[in-house]
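Quick look at the format.
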Amino acid sequence: MRKFIVAITLLVIAIGGIIILRDTSPNPGTEDNADGQLSTEACDAYIASFKECLNKIPQTLRPGMEMTLNAMQSQWHASGKAPESRKVMEQTCKSAAQNAKTSMARYGCTF
């Protein structure tokens, strides 16, 4: 359990670094898709898998995991509007999925 919490914390810290790349100009680039998805396939897939996984983890862990997911989505939505940050996001989301694949496997989650 402790390793799981440490892994999620490190993941959130790593993902938070993407915010630095966010474009703050008046015309930041591409908007989210009409369905609210991000501009990268890897991030969209990761978020979908994470949401599906929430139903498999113990009830006691869900509130914290939901907060983590909401924080990641907010950061990625803001960062994904800058074209130059989408490449970094794609790699970050792939790494996040790989880490989650290992740390969330015990709950029957797939990424």
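Next, a different chain entirely:
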Amino acid sequence: MALGDRSAFDASPRSRRRHRTGTANVKTLDKSGKDNRHTDRQSVDRRPGRRLLTLREAACYLGISPWTLRELTWKGSLPVVRMTRKLHFDLQDLDRFIEAAKDRL
């Protein structure tokens, strides 16, 4: 093989792979033609009948960090539901907290 001959390298499967750069969203469709992308972390699963959110989900819902949400709970500013060791938050309580925090002009 000559020094300038790259045909042996170009035929390898590795050379055909492309490196994906950036964070562009790739749109994938399922068989029915609906968008099949996963939602981002800030999206909250809003299934009908789902009333309790985990600590992380509630923090995303309020737009604050989980640690700040823990501190609000410890101070008594926000009620918490403890069915197990995990902290759960009622959507209605979160909405009341948001309404109380609004500035009235």
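Helices lie at 7-10, 13-16, 55-62, 66-75, 91-101.

See the schema section for token definitions.
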